[in-house]
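Reply to thread "Modeling small-molecule complexes from scratch"

Following up on the discussion above, here's a worked example others can learn from. I took a protein sequence and the SMILES for pyridoxal-5'-phosphate and predicted the complex. Inputs first:
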Amino acid sequence: MAKFNIEKTKESRISEVDWNNLRFGVYFSDHIFISDFVDGKWDGGRIEPYRALPMEPGLCTLHYGQTIFEGLKAFKSVKGGANIFRPDMNAKRLNNSAKMVCLPEFDTDTLIEGIKELVMLDRQWIPQERGQSLYIRPVMFGSSNFLGVTASPTTRLIVMTSPVASYYAEGLKPIKILVSTEYVRAVKGGVGMAKTAANYAASLKAGMEAHSKGFSQVLWLDGVNRKDIDEVGAMNIMFVIDGELITPSLDKGSILAGITRVTVLNLAKEMGMKVTERNISIDEVIDAHNKGILNEVFGTGTAAVISPVGMLSYLNKEYVINNMEIGPVAQKFYDTITAIQYGEVEDTRKWNVKIDF
Ligand SMILES: *Cc1c(COP(=O)(O)O)cnc(C)c1O
């Protein structure tokens, strides 16, 4: 480690943190990792204090949205030090997203080393409580100033971190979901498979409207037939129908390859569950509900890990799932994944990158 130039902050802001009310993405820790792509190559990367960066009004990304990001977490391990969960997967996905919006790829090992160095330096910012974590946010964007519609010749990568609360204050609470028949998040051939700002901008209005009607998230259907299920909010979605775990397959081209998604699929196969990645329509889900074989529905994502769905509203009808209670399958995945992340069980699959301190 320590092959990066490090400029330490002169004054830590850690005393500003209200550890009992962290919420999500409100506090930013003292340092960032930063690297620039200029003249066709990335510089070596450096660590600097978190601070405002100069920006011109002509910054191309402000106008055309050539920007991608990642989200992963570091957890205080019960064995001492910290665990970063599957950062290799995030590094690879960042490069997949980069290709889709004409940004240059970044060396995955360098990114992981940069993240480790950053977390080590700001280790005081890793929250102590079970459920809390240090959220790690890499963001990469075109950094040139011009208004021509073309890929930016220069790019910047920044990794920032933020202490975040447990998603669940009191246990896993099932959420109510509105199946959107009006709005679409992404279509095949678009950028739905990239973790890029455009998808988020496109989802805000539907999300706000769902919120105002008392729903937590939107369930997205495909943009062509408005029948096949894509994702839920910014999470992947899974169904347990008659004991079988079913989730939309990635080759539909409009959903994100979630790391929690693949983690759950790995574990389900290990547990001997029947696991199927395929197209699944809202009609099939409603049909299963009517037959009484829709056992569970849940979202998967880094923020919540597992988010049980207790009710689906589709065409003004409400479908209650598992009595608005968390089901045994969702609970099992939540417990297993979090136990690995906090170092409470043996990490036999080598998913954690350990930081010793
Ligand atoms: C980030 C994200 C997910 C979840 O991915 P994880 O790697 O599991 O956090 C799912 N869908 C969308 C649209 C996302 O942006």
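What I'd highlight from this example: The chain has a mean pLDDT of 96. The longest helix spans residues 197-212. Questions welcome below.
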